[in-house]
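FAQ: What does the model actually see?

It sees only this:
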Amino acid sequence: MIARIIPVIALAPLLSGCLAAEVITAPIDAVTTTQSEADQDRGRAMRKRDEKLGQLERRRNDALKDCEKGRQSRCEDADALELEIAELQDKPLDY
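And it is asked to produce this:
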């Protein structure tokens, strides 16, 4: 019985070192971002912003058409949408 315990005790420090190395490197791997992941995030943020800009531009164009037909409130809507578009274009990407 003692003959079986001695090899296990002798190997314990080696095994704990392996485990410690895995525990130490695991959080580092979880928080580091590769260049390809950063590129994907940036591309996703660009597509999202472009989609939002497209929606705002369509709404502004519709408001401008109604404004040309004499609906004053739609002229104000078009102006507000134009400001929102300009702000979104000037804002840096969030990724």
